[in-house]
Amino acid sequence: MLRTAVTGAAATGAVVATGAWAPVPGRRARPATPGAALRELRAGNQRWRTFHEKHPHETRAVRTEVVSGQHPFAVVLGCIDSRVPPELVFDQGLGDLIAVRSAGEVLDEAVLGSVAYGVLDLGIPLIMVLGHQSCGAVSAAVRADATGEKLPAHIQYVAEQIKPAIDRSLPGSARVDAAVTTQVRLVRSRLAAEPDLADRIATGRLAVVGARYELTNQLVREIH
Length: 224
Hints:
Layout: H1 2-11, H2 34-49, H3 60-65, E1 74-78, H4 86-89, E2 97-101, H5 109-121, E3 126-132, H6 136-147, H7 155-162, H8 172-193, H9 195-202, E4 207-213, E5 220-223
Parallel strand pairs: 1-2, 1-3, 3-4
Antiparallel strand pairs: 4-5
Helix pairs in contact: 6-7
């Protein structure tokens, strides 16, 4: 289905990215393996949290280059929280990341399709599920679960999707914090179980990892 959609876009004359990769003079080579992609994210986060950002791939030449296609090296599935933009947290630039964001990293068909597009059509070797400290969506889900409160409109759907991550034996803020981590693990496991993605994981072409961003020190901590 994804391939059909891309073919249709090409037929209309739209610019369509492909999974092929060719190094461009003056631009660093794209990390081609899951391990290399994860190391690049770690290095970028280290630059970010120590105020040594490079702000890569923002030049006039890069802006011209990406018109003809994109070759990102990682999919980051994160929360919509304005304090956790993946391109800043990992000090990356144009064409480096596919950033998919939903409240509490909740998966639905559109989010799952967006992640799958990055892997299956663009050949990305790494998916990172990125939760974060003090997540408002998780906090709302925990509160609604404890009180029976009905949340407005579509926010209730988000809360229901997060509910399996809640450990009711924990008190107060500890329950929220634990749910943030558990939600990451659940989403990571669900993605890794998707047949098209699982096949790539089995052959070493893809890794799905979990992490959380700590607002207090800007560290991205990997979750195992």
